[in-house]
Amino acid sequence: MTETTEATTQAISDDVTTVAVVGAGTMGRGIAGLFLRAGHDVRIHDHLPGVAARWVDSLSADELRGDDGRVRATDVATLEELVQGAGLVVEVVAEDRAIKASVLRTVSEHAPAHCIIATNTSSFPIDELAEDCLRPERFLGMHFFNPADVIPGVEVIAGEATDPAVVERVSAWLTAAGKHPATVRSSPGFIANRLQMALFLEAVKCVEEGLVTAADLDTVVSTSFGFRLPFFGPFAIADMAGLDVYRSIFATLQQGFGDRFAAPDSLVALTDQGHYGLKTGRGFRAYAPDEGETLVAARDDAYARMNDLLSDS
Fold it and tell me: In which element (H, E) is residue 182 found?
């Protein structure tokens, strides 16, 4: 560990637990509520008068005050007041480059030296936004999904200058708040939106080509591969289905739609080596000899429970 990382780790471990949220829209209120319920003191600010105050007023007495009766959530009128003594600032303003730049400059100028600053941007590269921060080593992305207090996933995006200790601390905060943080590198759209938009593009093409209505396409997605996604990601699903099967499907799709559906090199390499996934003990990941039967049983049980839940809704 470098001297810089050691110093950062010490400062982070000693900092206060106040979380400051810039923006009291739907996402901002959700993030503020998440950290409040996780035991942090929360301050919230919005450029529109009265918006942040209405959120604070909406809290129950138990949410608003701790066991000692102290008020734990407050709205403040200025950014300068918002960040005083904060250990974490989360910027949740409009997805507008100029607005974010202005907010991040003001926040970084007035926040304590130990403060971590996070942006909830959905698409802007973190290295680009870091140019507006005085201490880029303490800046990173924290991409929530709406509703922020319900959806468990959060993308934690480190920039080139972000100290690894900052990523670890933020991930620990999120885990303690009940989230499932995933560390990703900075790139346009990050991971979730890149995947989501790729699916959406193909969905639109299917409808525009007259293959299916929008309503029936939604049914296909939610009742087939989308049904699996709450439990398994695409690599686990591919390994369970069989990479040899996937390679065959890619061959058919490539014949019909061209090279944009060519089998990826990593899939070709694995299947050429006889690694087909769960049934051979190795695919995109390796499996212990007795793991396959256990995983399939857990999968089938999870799918059955999901089906029952949906049937009752």
Answer: strand 180-185
CA–CA separation, 83 and 94 (whole Å): 19
Torsion-angle region of residue 35: left (phi > 0), alpha (psi -120 to 50) or beta? alpha
Report residue 155: phi and psi, to 5°.
Answer: -85, 125
6-41 tens-digit pLDDT: 444 334 434 447 999 999 999 999 999 999 999 999
Question: Parallel, antiparallel, or unpaired for β 88-91 and 153-158?
Answer: unpaired
Decide the pairing of beta strands 153-158 and 139-143: antiparallel
Residue 66 banded pLDDT, cuts 50, 70, 90:
confident
Hey, CA dihedral for 17, 19, 86, 78, is it positive or negative?
A: negative
The Cα–Cα gap between 225 and 77 comes to 47
In the chain, pLDDT over 70 holds for what percent of residues? Answer: 95
In this structure, what are the phi and psi dihedrals at residue 88, rounded to the nearest 5 degrees?
-145, 130
